[in-house]
Each structure stands twice: as C-alpha cells, then as structure tokens.
C-alpha cells in the first residue's frame, strides 16, 4: 500500500494502480457482487435479457425487408399485396422493438447505475476523509474532487457499456455472421468479420495514442479546477491584495494550457472518426458489390442484396458507439487507476487492532517525555512533560514557532509522538480508538471554520438532532443569544462561505457554542481571542470561561491576560518547557514569561489596569 504524499496533493500525485483495463473490469464485477447491489440483481438480469432480445430483432428485421423486396420483384396480385403488407409489418414491428427495448432497458437500469456510482463515490469520499492530517494539509480540494467524480463516472460508464453495448454488439456480430453465412453465403460473413476486425484494430491503435493525450488533458483540467477553487475560496485575500487581475491571468494561463490539450484531443478524435467511417464504408461497398454480382448472376435476388446491406448497416451502426465506448472505457480505466490510487493510500495514524474506546474518568491529561518533529523540519518538541488534573485549566504560552499548536495536534492524535507517551485518564492515546478520543475533545481555534449553512446547523454540528430550545440555551451560554434573537431569520440565518457574513467575535462565539454543544470532557482553546479587539475579546473571554466550567481545559494563548487565571501555565520555548507555574510564580521568576508579559504591557496588548490588578494578586 502506498503512503500518503507529503507534498501538495494533485490528480497526478496519485500513482496509477497497475492492471489497466483488466483491473478496471475486475473492479466493476466486484462492485456488482457487493451485497449493497443484491436487490438490484433481478433488474440487471432483466435488462440483459431485453438487450439480447433487441439484438436478435435487429439482426432479423432486414431479412423481412429483403423478402418484401423479393415479393415486389416477383409480380402483382392480391396475394402478393397481402404478403408484402405482412412482411413490411413484420419489418416495422421488429425494427421498432429493436429500437425500443434498449430504451426500456436504460429506464429500468438507471437506478442500478446511480447506486453503483453512489457506492463508489461515498467509499472514496469516506476514505479520503479518514486519511491523516498530513494528507489534508497538502491536498488540493479541486483535484481531489475531480478524482472522485471521474472515478465514479468511470464505474457507471464501464457498467453500462460493458453490459449493454460491447458484449451485446459482439453477440449481434456473431448472430449476423451466422445468418449471413447460412442464408446468403460465407463471403458476406467474412466481409462482416473482416470489417469489424479492421475497425476494432484501427480504433484500438488510435485510442492508445489518444490515451496519453487524455491523461495530459485531465491533468490540465485538474490544475484548472484546483486553481479556480483556491482563488474563489480565498477571495477575501485576493481582494485585500488587489490581486484580481493577477488571479484572472493565472486562470487564463491555466485555461490556455487546458485548451491546447483539449484541441489536441479533438483533432485526434477527428482522425479517429474519419478513419472509422472509411473502414465502415469500405465494408458496405464490398458487401454491396459481392451481393450485386450475385444478383446479376442469379445466385441472389434483389431483395437478398438489400437485406445483406441492411444487415451490415445494422452491425456497423453500433460500431460508432463501440469506438466511442472503447475510447471511454480506456479513459475509464485510467480514471479508476487514479481512484484506486487514492483508495490505496493508508493513513499515517491508524487505530491499533481491536483498540478499545476511551474510558473517561475525569479527563486528566498527561504528557510524558514527548518528542516530535514534523517531516522536513529540524525543530519540534523535545522531552515535553506536564500533568493536567481533571477539571483543571492549563495555559500554554511561548513565542511563535515554539511548538504550542503541535502539543494540541498531538493531543488530538493528528500525529503520534516519536518518543514518549500522551495519555488521558492513564490511557495511552495510541491504544484507544481515534473516534472515542476526539469525541472527548472539543476545539475552539483562532480562526473558527464555519460551514456555508445556517447558524442552527453550525452550532448543532456536534449534535445535529438538537432542538432549537437546546441550541438557544447553548448560544446564550456562549453570549450569542441576543445576537441571534435580533436577526430577522434567527437560527435560519446563513453564515456565508467560511462564516464571512459574521464578524470575528461572532464567529468565535459560534465556535464556542459548537464546543459547548458537544459537551466534551476536555476543552482545547487555540489562541481563541488573539485576533480580536479588546472589547470583543472581553465578550468572547466571558463565553470561554462559561464553556470551560467543569471541564479540563488547555488554552494556548498569545495574549497572556487570557490565561493569567489558569491553574498552571506551561511556557514552551524552542520545543522545550522553559518554565511552568502559576501566573504569580512566573512573574516572580523573572524569566521568559515575565519578559513576554512586560512586552505585551508596553505594546498595549495588556492594559495597565489589568497588569496592576494581576501583579497585586
């Protein structure tokens, strides 16, 4: 199994699984065998029967028309007219059925096709969602979305065309060849088989050339879509830097690159279509010539000549679809390779076999001699140890890049320490399920990420079935109740992309309400007020204090005034714990913490009044 990629995820970053078309076909058959599609198997069988009956009628209908021509050529009379009408009626009836049965088949097979796509897409989405943090930090959302989309669409295409186009077309060719050989002569069967063989060979030859072009076009398409998503997602940054024209130029360059690849694909398609038409016409002319010579010699009738040409036309008509199907099947195999590559990725962080769920006994957190360094970096945590008793509040302070956020990511088990242990209630995080661990934790980050949905959906994200009354109780505890009641739509107010319709303080309080709704044993605050003004900070801090009641709380703080009341403050510097103690102890020690406190007083981040109040204590 391949590991997750440490660099930016892109469509081309997924290594194609070996096996090509054979692997793709095997995947389709495996999908059909899944229990989830068991209830659809009678529909599949009926659809195949309809397809086969349609092909038999398609082969037989020209024979009736040929006999009708022979009747016309034989003479006049009431009996002849009746026979003609009967033969033409049979010809029309079989033609209509031959055309209608595939449409009926498509109608009844549509639910099977859609369900197969759903199964594959959901499996890929769930697998990608379960990959580790490193994958999601580097992947490009647009490219990942395209891999899943194209993979699901490929399953649908392979399923429909293998079952209802390629195999039935081959059956139709076999039936027509037998009919031509028995009724009109083996030379016509040879012409039919030779034409189809030449057509298939030419199609495969050109398609192999076009597959490389399609790969390059897909890569350009993924880059284009990823670029659009990145730019539109970060539109606020684009506007802040007046970079609209630059982003438009970047989009133009990406689109130009895609257009060049697309033009190459279109041109090669024209070559393919022109060659296919030439081969089919050559076969029809050869059959018409042989049949015409047979009619002139008296070996065949005029109606036989018409029937032979019509039979061949019926065979050659789906060859156009066959050529298209082959091209798309080859492309589908490529797309499934990418999807298989995604599914082959394994998370860096996985549950131990038969790992039990976390058994909460108060929420005590312990770091023991923890060391961790991010891939590609030399700095990290080294020999970090501290204890957080159940219900205690611990502050984590230190300069930027000291390793504060890494401590929280290790606690969430987004990464595993390279040495040392992290435990909750004396249970090593590596020995419990990630689901139970994260169920016990709630995070309020510096930049709260909200879904482009209603306030109700965002606040109740941890408990989607929560009542409006419960949601408003939680909102009030987060100092958000009055704000929501003042809105015309109340809880139905949509917050916009990433919550951009809300102010910074409002977003923070929604994030706090979401954490309170989860009712975690351990609350994690990651610089939750550092980007707010003083007045808003006071409001949010009051909400944070409410959220922290009765819970073990770990708070990373840039603004030290927010953790001055903590039971314990751990000061991290260059990956080590430089100091630890209460606010008063650390000020008295006149070390790193005292210097940071003084700098924030001088910069105005901490008011003189608050500083004096804290010092007097």
What is the global morphology? elongated
Q: Helix count, per DSSP?
A: 19
Biggest sheet character: 6 strands, mixed
CATH homology superfamily name of the largest domain: ABC transporter type 1, transmembrane domain
Number of strands: 10
> Which parts are unreliable, with pLDDT below 50 for 5 consecutive residues or more?
1-19
The proportion of residues in beta strands is 5-15%
Structure, described:
The chain is α/β, with parallel strands linked by helices and 617 residues long. It folds into 3 domains: 334 residues, Up-down Bundle (ABC transporter transmembrane region fold); 180 residues, P-loop containing nucleotide triphosphate hydrolases (Rossmann fold), CATH 3.40.50; 72 residues, P-loop containing nucleotide triphosphate hydrolases (Rossmann fold, 3-Layer(aba) Sandwich). Helices cover 64% and strands 9% of the residues. The chain is built from 19 helices and 10 strands. A 6-stranded mixed sheet has the order 6-7-8-3-9-10, sandwiched between helices. It has a 4-stranded antiparallel sheet with strand order 2-1-4-5, covered by helices on one side. Strand 7, helix 16 and strand 8 form a beta-alpha-beta unit. Helix 1 packs across helix 9, helix 2 runs antiparallel to helix 3 and helix 17 crosses helix 18. The radius of gyration is 35 Å and the shape is elongated. The N terminus is likely disordered.
């Amino acid at each position: 199994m391949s590991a997750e990629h440490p660099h930016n995820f892109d469509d081309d970053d997924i290594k194609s699984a070996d096996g090509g078309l054979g692997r793709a076909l095997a995947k389709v058959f495996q999908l059909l065998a899944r229990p989830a599609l068991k209830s659809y198997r009678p529909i599949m069988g009926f659809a195949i029967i309809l397809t086969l009956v349609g092909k038999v009628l398609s082969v037989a209908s020209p024979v009736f028309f040929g006999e009708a021509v022979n009747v016309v050529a034989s003479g006049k009379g009431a009996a002849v007219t009746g026979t003609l009408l009967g033969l033409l009626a049979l010809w029309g009836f079989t033609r209509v059925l031959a055309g209608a049965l595939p449409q009926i088949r498509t109608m009844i097979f549509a639910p099977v096709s859609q369900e197969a796509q759903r199964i594959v897409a959901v499996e890929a989405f769930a697998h990608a969602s379960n990959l580790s943090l490193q994958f999601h930090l580097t992947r490009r959302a647009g490219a990942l979305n395209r891999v899943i989309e194209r993979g699901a669409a490929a399953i649908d295409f392979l399923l429909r065309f293998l079952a209802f186009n390629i195999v039935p077309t081959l059956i139709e060719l076999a039936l027509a060849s037998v009919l031509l050989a028995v009724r009109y002569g083996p030379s016509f069967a040879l012409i039919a088989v030779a034409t189809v063989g030449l057509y298939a060979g030419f199609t495969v030859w050109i398609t192999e050339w076009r597959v490389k072009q399609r790969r390059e076009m897909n890569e350009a398409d993924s880059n284009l879509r990823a670029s659009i998503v990145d730019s539109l997602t970060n539109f606020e940054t684009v506007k802040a830097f007046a970079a609209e024209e630059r982003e438009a130029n970047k989009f133009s360059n990406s689109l130009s690159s895609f257009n060049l690849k697309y033009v190459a694909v279109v041109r090669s398609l024209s070559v393919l279509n022109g060659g296919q038409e030439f081969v089919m016409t050559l076969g029809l002319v050869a059959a018409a010539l042989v049949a015409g010579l047979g009619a002139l010699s008296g070996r065949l009738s005029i109606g036989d000549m018409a029937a032979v040409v019509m039979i061949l036309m019926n065979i050659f008509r789906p060859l156009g679809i066959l050529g298209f199907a082959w091209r798309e099947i080859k492309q589908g195999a490529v797309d499934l390779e990418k999807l298989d590559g995604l599914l082959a990725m394994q998370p860096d962080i996985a549950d131990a076999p038969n790992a039990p769920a976390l058994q909460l006994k108060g929420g005590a957190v312990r770091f023991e001699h923890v060391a961790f360094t991010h891939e590609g970096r030399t700095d990290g945590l080294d020999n970090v140890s501290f204890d957080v008793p159940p219900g205690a509040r611990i502050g984590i302070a230190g300069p930027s890049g000291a390793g504060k956020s890494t401590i929280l990511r290790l606690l969430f088990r987004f990464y595993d320490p390279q040495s040392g242990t992290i435990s909750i209630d004396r249970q090593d995080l590596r020995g419990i399920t990630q689901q139970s661990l994260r169920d016990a934790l709630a995070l309020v980050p510096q930049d709260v990420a909200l879904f482009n949905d209603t306030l109700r959906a965002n606040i109740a994200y941890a408990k989607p079935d929560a009542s409006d009354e419960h949601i408003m109780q939680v909102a009030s505890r987060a100092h958000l109740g009055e704000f929501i009641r003042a809105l015309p739509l109340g809880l139905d107010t949509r917050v916009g992309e990433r919550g951009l319709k809300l102010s910074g303080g409002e977003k923070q309080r929604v994030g706090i309400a979401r954490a309170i709704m989860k009712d975690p044993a351990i609350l994690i605050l990651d610089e939750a007020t550092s980007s707010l003004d003083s007045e808003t900070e006071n409001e949010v801090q009051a909400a944070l204090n409410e959220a922290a009641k009765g819970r073990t709380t770990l708070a990373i703080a840039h603004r030290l005034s927010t953790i001055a009341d903590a039971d314990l403050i751990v000061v991290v510097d260059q990956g080590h714990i430089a100091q630890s103690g209460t606010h008063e102890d650390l000020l008295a020690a006149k070390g790193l913490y005292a210097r940071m406190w003084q700098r924030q007083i001088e910069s105005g981040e901490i008011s003189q009044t608050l500083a004096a109040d804290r010092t007097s204590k």
